[in-house]
Amino acid sequence: MSSSEELTRKFARRFVAMGDSFTEGVGDIDPSSPNDVRGWADRVAAQLISNDSSWGYANLAIRGKKLEQVIDEQLHAAIDLKPTLLTLYAGGNDIIRPTVDLERLMSRYRAAVQKLREETEARILLFTGFDSAKAPVFNMTRGRTAIYNEHVRKVAEDLGCEIVDFWNMKRMQDWAYWDVDRLHLGIAGHTLMAKEVLRVLGETDEIDDPELDAMPAVSLYDRTKDHLTWGRDHFYPWVRRRLTGASSGDGMSPKYPQLTDKVW
């Protein structure tokens, strides 16, 4: 018997998370965690295991991955782990590219969810994309995200999946929930997302509400300076990676490629 088969036998309930940086946990810095990040999925897993010790957890997500990469690299691995709960979010890295064929991508998304439905008995949670109406630069992609969300909602309806509705989590439009790069949730954002996922699951939630630091009033000069600093330190490096074909996830491995109950 392989080690993977032994683990699936060990854990009666198996949570498998698929995706990109959002699910890997980028922005929730934790040097004690694999890849130096924790994230909402780890927090959900820790709570599930606390509620019921029969849970095992695997996180296959890797930062920088586009939707088709997530499908090609994670789908079969997820199926092999025989999940009883599976979360999938991918597509954000496609939406913010200069061009994207959403109809083709979402056709692949539907096919991937269909395969998960056919080959596992998992409860499947899908995510809508974030409403970037108040986000500088990325607010230009809001229309694409709305189209993406309509596809996600239709796939969920047709295939019997549940939705974590990130689009309507309007509290997240407060930048205090985000990392300094404005691309990823910060510790508070990942904590709030974990609580929302647990709410959708109907699971006991003992996670403390995130505490936000009061945001001081900022002058126009300081706000402009902050935008310029953000552009230099975060936006332009992101653009450079896109132009060179590099990814923030190059050379990285999944945090938890096999089922475990050792999550904090």
UniProtKB/TrEMBL annotation:
Gene3D superfamilies: SGNH hydrolase (3.40.50.1110). Residues 17-191 form the SGNH hydrolase-type esterase domain. Keywords: Hydrolase. GO terms for molecular function: hydrolase activity. Coiled coil: none annotated. Its EC number is 3.1.-.-. This is SGNH/GDSL hydrolase family protein. It comes from Nesterenkonia aerolata. The lineage of its organism: Bacteria, Bacillati, Actinomycetota, Actinomycetes, Micrococcales.
